[in-house]
Amino acid sequence: MGVARQYCGQLGKQDNCQVAVSVSLACERGSLPVAWQLYLPESWAEDGERRQKAGIPEEIAFQTKPQIALAQMQALLADRPASSGAGGCGHGTDAGSGMHSRGWG
């Protein structure tokens, strides 16, 4: 599900692959994924037959990767005090701009 020609960070180039958007907590000793979602390319989101064959629920709509990341951050930070932040994350990206506009970093 979701295989398309897109940028793959593991390969450092575009290829046919699946992409996941995730948020992890990290420190010197390691990292822990706390949110993870498979990215559904727009070509998949708009293809009803393909969606049905893959069992993709109708309520799953196309979202860009930055939109997915912001939704994950919003869910994770919903119950945090305003002083909590996400410093050093997403700089120079649409997700980073969205985080900064919300006071998260």
> For the terminal residues, how far apart are their CA atoms?
33 Å
Poorly predicted sequence stretches spanning 5 or more consecutive residues: none
Shape: globular
Q: Give the overall pLDDT as a whole number.
A: 85
How much strand? 25-35%
Radius of gyration: 15 Å
- The SSE order reads EEEEHHHH
- Quaternary structure of the protein: single chain
What is the β-strand count?
4
- Provide the helix percentage: 25-40%
Largest sheet: 2 strands, antiparallel
Structural class: alpha+beta
| Count of discrete alpha- or pi-helical segments spanning 4 or more residues | 4
Strand order within the widest sheet?
Answer: 1-2
Describe the structure.
There is one protein chain. With 105 residues, the protein is of the alpha+beta class. Strand 1 (4-8) and strand 2 form a beta hairpin. The strands form 2 sheets. Strands 1-2 form a two-stranded antiparallel ribbon. A two-stranded antiparallel ribbon has the order 3-4. The longest helix has 13 residues, at 65-77. The protein is built from 4 helices and 4 strands, in the order E-E-E-E-H-H-H-H. The radius of gyration is 15 Å and the shape is globular. The mean pLDDT is 85.
